[in-house]
Amino acid sequence: MEKVSVSLEDNIFWDLKKEKVAINSSKLVDFLSANGFAKAMTSKTDYLFVRIQDNLMTEVKEFNISNFIQKFLKDNQLSEVYEVFVKGISSYITKSRLELLKTIPYENDRDNENSTAFYFKNCFTKVYKSGIKKYTYEELDKKVWESRIIQRSFNFSTEGEIGDFEKFIHKICKNGKDRILSFKSIIGYLLHRHQNLSCAKAIIFMDENISGDSTANGGTGKGIIGQALSHCREVETMDGKNIKTKSWFKYQRVTRTTDIIFFDDVGQDFNLEELYSIITNGMQIEKKHKDEIFIPPHETPKILIASNYTVRGTGGSTDIRRRFEFEVANYYSDKLTPMDEFGRLFFEQWDEDEWNKFYYFMMECSQVFLDKGLIPVKSINLEKNKLINETSKEFYEFMKVNLVPNRMYNKRDFQADFIKEYPAYQDISAHAFSKFLSTWAEHNNLDFKTKSSGGNYLFIMNNKND
User: Fold this and answer.
1) Which of these, 218, 229, 236, 417, is most buried using a 10 Å CB contact count?
2) pTM for the full predicted model
3) How many angstroms separate the CA atoms of 57 and 142, rounded?
4) Is the pLDDT of residue 323 over 90?
5) Quick one: which of 390, 379, 187, 222 has its CA closest to 306?
6) Beta carbons within 8 Å of 121's beta carbon, 6+ residues apart
7) Main-chain phi, psi angles of 449, to 5 degrees
8) Residue 345, burial from CB neighbour count under 10 angstroms (0-12, 13-18, 19+)
9) 10 Å Cβ neighbour count for 376?
């Protein structure tokens, strides 16, 4: 059992009455307050219990406080006091009595607009757009949550050296300088524990090439990106294929200190609209048998989505300003994995030098974002993939050959020609085919107009600029 290094002096919370031990409740509260326990107010009407040691904060529950007292009494061989405490614990450690602990304001330890911090076991670093600086914990000027501490040491011994993860990023960016820079800005955005509501977005990683049907390619390395972030920040990963969208408790693992929610491998039917309110209005978190938590907009976690498909939305400016998409090259697959290429498992089989290279690269990504913000890059197949996802690969190929803008078509004949070329679509309804046509027009900036004439249904797609 871990020792509690608290001396007896000024820490006696019991009295001797006729040679019998009696716990003094007010002294017990003072004892706990003197040892860093407090009530942190998260709002005017809500709070949580914490312990503060050397500027590190930890959220605690009643059982943590009981364990602390137990260790203190056992370490000091106070068996008689311990026996009395155990017998009356249900009356000594109660929510109503603990509410008398010292009251402090809730500490928001997130980054400011101009820097981001990485907290290691031996030091912490701060990244500014002008550079990276290393500090000792004696120089820490604010309280931070203990869960922020990365359980590794860091030094600059490998500065300038390229590690496995950076090489991996180059591969999935096809070694293109513009794409690498854009990717680094994205990682920097996700690492920044500061939410600027004017540019809050969901980051969406998708495959550069998609299959065009219900069969996903996968294996391109998007999951490794999520793992990398989890070694720097508090990441809550959601199984994208099994999200219970109607469940009140789907976010119950998210806490006030969660930095990123990673929706991994979302399905073809996933819709970004489900996350609009989180991105801009804050988060209401329902927990089973516990009080709900509200996280205000400026403290909400960043959103990361990985998909083998394009991610649907409502369309229009509302949707566009809430997403930032990046196409991951299909360099890796089930036939060539990072393990095949690098000869070791990422993260699990790295030595100290490799970890230093990794963390320095992540700090460089933070520096890029702080200096330049999110850097857009020209899409490769994004619009094509969105169109294929919303219609089909066969329809896309048919339209590329057969549709001429500003020309009138008989819709029934046009559909018949499509079915003749692709018999697998013989059961497509007139309504579904019309929706395909409308989607094509929308993605190609065309006006889709229909009319009925002499029993014939006609359509035309005009260039909007004409």
Assistant:
1) 229
2) 0.85
3) 10
4) yes
5) 222
6) 149, 150, 151, 152, 153
7) -125, 140
8) exposed
9) 12
